[in-house]
Structures are given as structure tokens and as C-alpha cells.
Specification:
heterotrimer; A alpha/beta (619); B alpha/beta (374); C mainly alpha (292); B: 374 residues; alpha/beta; Rossmann fold; 2 domains; 11 helices; C: 292 residues; mainly alpha; two-stranded antiparallel ribbon
Amino acid sequence: MAKNKTKSYALNSFALIITFLFAFALIASGNINNYYSSLLISVLIAIIMTVSLNLTTGLLGQLCLGHAGFMSVGAYTAGIITKSLPDMPLGLSLTIALLAGGLLAALFGFLIGMPALRLKGDYLAIITLGFGEIIRVVIENLKITGGPAGLTRIPRMSRALAESPKDSAAIQFAIVYWIMVMVVTSIFTLGRSRHGRAIISIRENEVAAEATGIPTTYYKLLAFTFAAFFAGIAGGLHAHQIGMLTPKYFDFNKSIEYLVMVVLGGMGSITGSIISATVLVTLPELLREFAAWRMVIYSLTLVLMMIFRPSGLMGTKEFSLIATVEKLEAKWHSVFKRKEHKPKLPFRPHYDVWENQPVLETKNLGIQFGGLVAAENININLKDNEIVGLIGPNGAGKTTVFNLLTGVYEPTQGDIILLGNSIKGRPTHEITNNGIARTFQNIRLFKSMTVLENIKVAFHTRMRYSPMSGILRSEEYASEEHGIDIRARELLRVFDMEDVADDNADSLPYGLQRKLEICRALASNPKVLLLDEPAAGMNATETQELMDTIKRIRTRFSVAILLIEHDMKLVMGICERIYVLNYGHIIAEGTANEIANNEDVITAYLGMSQDEEEGTKPC
Amino acid sequence: MKKLFLILLSIAMLTTLIVVPAEEVIKIGGIGVLTGPYATYGVAVKNGADLFFEELNNAGGIDGKKVEIIWVDSQGDPAIGQQAYYRLVENDEVVAILGAVLTGVTNAVADAAAEDGIPMVSPSATAYEVTTGRPNVFRTCFIDPFQSVMIARYMKSKNYKNVAALYDTGDDYSTGLYETFVNECKELGLNIVATEAAAFADVDFKAQLTNIKNANPEALFLPYYGAPAAHIVKQADEIGLDIPFIGADGISSITDSITDFSLLTNVIYSDHFNNDAAGEVAVKFLKGYEEKYGEVPTVSFSATAYDTALVLTEAIKKAGTEDYAAIVDAIKNMEVEGVTGIITFDDHNDPIKSAFFTTFDADGNKVFLERVDP
Amino acid sequence: MSLFINQLINGIHVGSIYALIALGYTMVYGIIRLINFAHGDILMVGAYTVVVAIGTLGLSPLAAILISIVICALFGILIEKVAYKPLRNSPKISSLITAIGVSMLLQNLALLIFTPTPKPYPVPLSVAPLNLGDIQISFITILTFGVSIVIMMALQTFVTTSKAGKSMRAVSEDMKAALLMGINTDNTITLTFAIGCTLAGIGSALFCLAYPSVSPTMGSLPGVKAFIAAVLGGIGVIPGAMLGGFLLGIAESFTKAYISSQLSDAVVYGILIIVLLFKPSGLLGKSVREKV
């Protein structure tokens, strides 16, 4: 594993350095003239902008239409700073300026993200558009930014970094190139760390991500803020490339330009972003005769892309130097030797369970939506390692109860006690970390992630390494990732799914998808497992298998299970106790036998003919 | 058969290389906004310059050499404008730059041009600081401060005491003019009783005009381009605001955007030249323009662009070489008659020109009022 | 006082136009949950049609306007069929991006075909304004307000009572269920676009009568503002678009008159943000919970 990684680093670094030296030499010697070198700088800046936008729009999956606003904040801040420090050597003032620009842009990202990220989809896109425009209008009206005339006489990197113009241009290239490399690598490695997984899981299925223990609000803000930071840096670089700024430059159309680059390259693919940014900056230059058609072709391409190839050039795939090399090597080498360092296994919470005390209990739990009482006076409890059923006719409120238990809804009445502590009002991901995990009626998997990755998401909060560690690929990162890899495969083995570990989740047959969901829920080490119609869509054989699986899980993982089901064979077969829900109230409680003979229960399942009745009784 | 054909073709091509000597051409780079929402101005500039060079080349060029102007579209984007500059200088090896058109783009291009020392003359960038500290950058249009000063003086000369102003906060041309106007009014003792502003691209000015009407000014300062000015004039008429509207050169294209010309009789503006009060060069320009393009020039930048081309040509002739510094020197010391009058440059590389106050008759024709000298 | 009333009238005039355009946004969003970014540009399409009809074809102003309204409706249908229909089952982000693409395409085609030089709207209208003391109301204001109100009432009646209107409401509630009930969802959606764009066409005529300058990007700003108006009133709710339109127009007018004309744009976007943060479903909209 480590050897793989080292090889990958070596290969990638080698490629980067060779490219750099080659270009640097050409610029310093004047063989690449100002025209090509400034075009190159424009490409590099566009790459930074595109890749940073890809973080929010591609990886996080939230359409952001105001990215140029962050760029402008960074640009103006940086420009104002270098202009006010004329006596400092540009190299130093530029460093301060870029950092300040990036940080201020990040602050804006944070401040805008906080309210904005509560919205979804269209609304989020619109509000980012609104913020982008407001930033522009404000900049246009401030004295310090020069108003509509803008900021001029910003020291330009192509002249002010050294005595000779050629040297200065070469240094400009060096600065922008390595900053680009840092940004792209950071986003790339972040994307492949547990934090990236968390972000991608939010894109795939936000509800499931939250339920799997990911603090979604935190990660949405993280992605947004990082993206804004990098955009601010790109802005600062732009300011010192051109030497002047006007507020109109950073308008909605500019945001759209970068969006087009992200979309064309493939949302979620860093490599795609690099390619499309390069192409879309250089192509118009080469085709200047067709300038009038440029925008028409752009917009047409956008529309056609969305209709025929929405995944863009690269989809969500990345081009990896190491992967290509490895494919060749695999032909005549056997599997690489594994770990050289100790894997750090994920932290396993220990649950204090008192004798005879329920692990989960509700006290007069209820919720009212406006005038509609969806659930009322729900009193259920779950003892350690029990398997309890929750049944009732359609619309009785069973999933509502689950939603209350997992914090998706906040109860308007009553309380929920988990292992002796009240969890009422807590956010879902916290509840998950405290010991309740669930599956969903409509399977909510992270579709474009592999089976293994789906499980790894659940280990998220049992790991410790920070985003910085993820970016820098520290020791902590390596050992923790190795640790969960072991655990995740173990878990899959229990469920007989180890051989599909690397398949995409949405390529699995239905039955396996359900199993995966349960497996994922167990990965977060819960004490209580809530299963919402696990047997839905299964035939008799599969249902029998499921029953065995559930019993095995209960013992092996020492969890209490509460399940919602309509399949009476399963319920009667494995449930030690059953609650019956109707119109939001518990109407009966007892063993399978007691329930089957309960008058109220039979009446509740109205319109049951003699045959149907018989079919529900255990033989 | 194919082989024979190819051989003959190659020979033919080679002979053309030998027989026809490469023509010596003087290349000038043109940068303007040729596409996008502001293209009207770029195209007007291109038309004016192209007309001049066509006439020049027909008359033999400069000492027998033809002049070729290579246009690159800036798309109104300073970054692309700067890129265009590099392309023209590095790849096409032009000897001078004609442009840019918009102030923002011109600033970006001038920054780079100042580093290289290449002669650069803009026909339309009116912001003062474009030429500050840049000895090789010139312009043939007035600077904003100049127009505002002239307008304020004009108002004073008509004995107005209370005036109002309406300007565009999102446009540097408009805000630049407004700020210098305010300063000059202070100097001259003119009272600004109402100041209103509008956001860029707004089409509804009734709220602002209503406020202005309420303040009872005798004249309204209107530093706007023709299209929005047309809206303003119409809406002012609707609410019954009947006072003179006095603006700067941007107003010249107002006839493109209005159908009821009778509303224009209240509009006065300062222009670079006037079709009527014209000298020989102006008459030639107007005739040539109409012949080549089939219409009368509406945007005055066509005239200044023609003059820019004239200035560059004269300078190259005078310098006798393609050396940047020599041409710049020749421009500095130039005095030539152009469409817009006698052109000569001051220490700030700005032209010393007169303003032609113009109004319209009820059919939309421009009517010369008076000439104001600096 | 008369100043206040004059500003109010200004606001109502602008608001009526916003309302008409907002109706188109809201109807489309209501039925297929798509923000039709290209809607504002339909305004531009209508305007150029009139220019061409009168200038090149020599038609009378009234005929030109009627034709332009029809052309707008046809454009709406065309865009729906070609660009939006294939993406009906795709993730929202794709449709949103396509809508942006269509808008840009319309604007840039117009730039290419008609050049950026603004052209005057060739419909002369000179009728004396109404004078009530200090207050002056122009004929166009009265016409705009009157036409808007009549159309809105007609639309509301149509949607609530007619069969087609009921289909529209059914499809916007639940497309799949409507399909199962035998409603031809495709036709209903087409009808919605047609009506929405017809309204935009009428709005275009009224807009150009008041602001007679036609340019390729003329629809952007009114489009964005009308969209904000729709969100303010409650996107997807027809009375919401009307309410939002008037409120926004008046707010804009008063901001320009009494607060600061510089920041009127910022205020308008500010309203958008405040609405989205505190009541994203708008003033008259209902909050929809996501089913977990």
C-alpha cells in the first residue's frame, strides 16, 4: 500500500517538475514570448478557478452561480494591499496580498455559505447568484476599490519581479504554476481523504450522509469556504497579471464561464477541469476570427452537453499516471507487498448498558405538523439485543416514528432516551454517533461510490485525521485509512459481499443493495439499528435469508433492532415483541401470538378477508 | 497523372515565391471591442480607422509602403485586450497600437504598452489617468474633466443658477464626468439642486426624474450614452420635465434609439466635431464614410478614430523609421488638421481641442450651436 | 404628498410589467420545477419580431405586435421541446445549466444577427397623459396596468375553471399521478410554456412601449427582476407572481426615490436573499417538506 503511494508520488512529482523546468527555461530564455507566456498564465489561473468551483459544484454537488464574486474579493484585496506597500519587494508583498485575498474570500464564502447552504438545489443556485451580484454592486460603489473605474496601476508580475523582463516573466510563471499545483493537489488529495468521501456522500444522498454520521452542514461549509479561498487566490493572481481590475469583469457571465468549464470537463473530475480550462482559454485565442461565434458556440455546447453527455468529458473519473503505469506493471509483477506501518483501527465506542434498562425508550413521543397530528403518545422501548417489530397499516406513521428517533423530525411532544440520555432535538449525525443507525424505505446508497467506499463513509466519525492531514497525506492519514480498509472488508465478509467491494453501488442487484445499506448502518457501530422495510421487494427465499441475517447481526454485533415491516412472515418469525401503530397511536403491544389474536389489530387492518387473515397467522 | 499534377503545382508555387517579391508593409495593431454589448463603439472606431487607411493605401501609402491594420477583438474584456496587445506586438510585430476603445481595456493595454514604449493612441478612452505616467500613450478624444468643465461653463454662460445632475453609477465614463462636473460647478458658483443616480442597464428613470422635477432646476446635466439617454428624454417628457438636457459626447448616438425626434430639441451635448462646422478634412471624411458604409456616422468615435489613424500615419512618416521612440517623439510634437480640428498634444498627452456644442432639430438632424475653446 | 403618489404610480407601472413576466416564470416552475432562465430573453425575441415586422415586412404596428406575441409562444414551445423535455428526468442541476445555456444562446444569436446597436421600437404612441392636479399619469402606465390586471384575472379564471387549467394544476401537483389519471402531461406542459411565453410577449410589447429601445441583452435585467418578483410572491403560485411583481416594482421605485438610486440593484438582490433565507417558499407559497 505504502509502496504504491510512494511510487505514485514519485511519478507525479517527476512529471510536474519536468514540465515546470521545461516551461521555465523557455520563458526565461525568451523562446516563449510575452504572448504565449501570458496566455499560459491565464490558463493556469483558469485551472485554479475551475478546480475550486468543481469542489462545490462537482464534489459537493451544489450549483454555485456566484464564484466570480469570490474571485473579485481576492483580486481587489490583493491589489489594494500591494498598491499600499510600494516599498516592499513584490515577492513579499504579493505573498501577503494573495494570502489576505484568499482569506477574505474564504470569510465571505463562510458568511455566505452559512445561510445559503440551508437551501437546496435551485434555491441555493439563485442565492449564490444574488450574493455574487451584490458583491459586484458594492465593489462598484466603494471608494477604496475605485468605483466603476476600478483599480489601476497594480504592480504586474511580468515586470515587477525582476530587473529583466524575461526573468520577471519566468518568475511569474513559476509562482502561478506552483500555486496551481498546490491548489489542484490539495483538492485532489482532499477529495480522496475521508473528508472528500464525506463531501461526495453529501452529493450522492444528503439524507443518507447525515444518517450515516456525516455532519453535513460542517462539510458543506468546509467545501464552500475552501472553494472561496482558492478562488480568492486566483483573483489575486489575476490582478497582478493584468495590472488592473474593473467590477464589471467579475459579473454573472464570468461565473458562467467557469461553470461551463466545470460542466464540460465533468463535474467531480479534477482532471476533466484541467483539460477543459486549458481548452476553453486557448481555443478562443486560436480561433479569433470566429470571435462573434464564440459565445454562440459556447452556449450551444452547454445545451448539447447537458442533453447528450451530462457527465462531461471525464465524468467523475480521474486520469491517474500511476494507474496507467500499474496496469502495465501488473502484467508481470504479483501483488505488491502490503503495509509497512501499523494500521490504526477505527475507534469503537463502548456503550454502557445497564442490566434490564432499555437501550432506547420514548416517553409520550409525538409530532404535530400544523394541525395534523402525525404521531402522539408513542411509548416504546427496546432492550439490549432485542428484535422488536413496528407494524401498522400504510400511513400509520411508522416511518415518522423512525424520523423522530433519528432526529430528522423534532418532536413537538415527549422525549427520546438513548442509553439513559435524552437525544431530543439533537441533529441526526450526532444521534448516529451516539448509537442509532438506520436504513431507509427507499434505498439511499451513495450510488456513484463503490461498495467499499459506501462502508467507509460510515467510519467517518470513528476517525480522527484532519483535512490538513488528508491533504498532506500524513502518517495519521495512511494508518487510519488502512485501518478502516481492514474493518470495512471484514464487515463485507460477514455479509458475503467482499467480492463486490469495488463495484459501484448502483450496479448491484436489488437484494445486495439492501444488504449493503444494512452493512453500512452497522459500520457506524450502533447500539440500536432501525430497519425500514428491509424485506420490501424480496421473494420468499430472500426474505428467509434476510431473517437469518438479522438474527446473526443481532448476536454478532450486539445490537437491538427495531424494524418496520409489512411482510408478516418475517415479523412473526423473528420479532420477540411487536408494536402496532395506527393513525399515529400505538394500539397494541405484545408477542407475535398476542398481536395476531388482538381484536383491535385485526380491525385496524381493515378489509381483510378470511384467507388473508389466515395467511398472517404463524403456522 | 496525379504525380505530374503535384510536381507542376509545386513548381508554380515556387515560381510565385521567386517572381513576386514580398510586399513591404507597415503593420499597425488595432484593439477594439468588436463583439458583445459594447461593440457599437468598437465597430465605429474600426470603421473610421479602416476608412482612413483605405484612402491612404489608395494614395500610395507611406513612401510607397502600404499600411496594414490588424484588428484584434478585445470583447470588452481588459484581460483579453492585454492578450491581444501581446499577440500584436510579439507575433505580428506591429509598429504602433491604435486603441483601445473602452477605458478599462485601454488601461490594461496601456499598462503593457508603457512597459514596451510602443506608440499607442486611443480614439475614445476618456478617463484622465489613462495617459498619466505613460509617455508613449496618447489619445485623440477629450478627457472627461475637459468636457465637464466645458459643459459647466456653457451652463454658466446661459445664466443658469440652479442645475441638476443624473448619472450612471455603474459606468466609469458617467461617474468620471459627474465628479469633475461637481467640482467645476463649485468653482463657478453653480448650484446643484438635485443629484440622482441610476444603476447600470436600468431603463426606468421616472423615480429619479420625478425627484429632479420637484427640485426645479433650470438644466439637467446628463453624462450618458445615447441609448439610456433616449429613455431619459422620453420619460422626462412623460412627466412634464421640460428643461434643457446637457450631456457629453456619448449622447451623439441618441438618434439610434429614439423615434420621436421632436423630443431631441431640448438636448444639447458637447461633441468632437460637427457635420456642419466642418473643415476640409471633415467634409472628406463624411463623404468617404457615407460612400464606404452607406450611412452617416452616428458615433463620434468614427471621427476620432480617423484622426487617430491620421496622427499615427503622420508620425510614422515624420519619424522615417519604425523605431518606437522616434514615432512617439513625432506624435508629441505633432500639429495636424484632422476631422475634429487641429490636433496637438499637451504635456499629459491629451489633445488640445475645442468642444462643439450641438443640438438637434425636430427631424433628428444635428444642429451646430457654438464652439467652445479651452 | 403628490411626489409620493407619483413615485407610487411609477412603481405600479414597473411592477405590472414585472408581474406579467413573473407569471411566465412561476407557471413553468410550478409545472416542471425548472427556472427557465431563458424567459427574460423571450421579451427580447418579441421586441425584435416587431422591429422586423414593421421595418422589413412593413406591417402595421398592431399586426406586428400580435404576430410577435404568437412568435413568443412558438419560441417557448420550441425551447421546451428541444432543450427541456429531454432532461425532464435528469438531475435538477442539468436542467438549470441547460436553461442558462439557452438564455445565452438566444442573446448571442441576437447579437450576431441584429448587431449590438440598439434599435428604436417602431411603435409610435403619443397620447396625452392624464392630469389629476399635481399628479400626471401617462397613457402607457394606464394601459400597462389595465392590461396586466385583465390578463391576470383571465389567467386565474382559466387555471381554476377550465379543463386545461385543471390539468395544469394536476401536473404541477404530481406529474406521475396526473399521467396515471390519463392527462396528457406533454401537452399540458407545452400549453403551460405557450401561455407563459404569450404573457411574456404581451409584457414585451408593454415594456417596449414604455422603454422603446431594442437590444440583444434587453431581456436580462427585467428577466432577473421578474424572477425575483416570482420568488418573492411564491414561485409556482400564480397570485404570488402578481403580488411579487407589484411589490418589487414599488420597492424599487421607492428605493430609488427615497433611499439611494445607486443601491437599488443591491436592494432588489437583497430582497431576494432575505426571502430565500427566511421564507423560501415566498409570501404566498406553501412550504414543502422533503419526504425522507
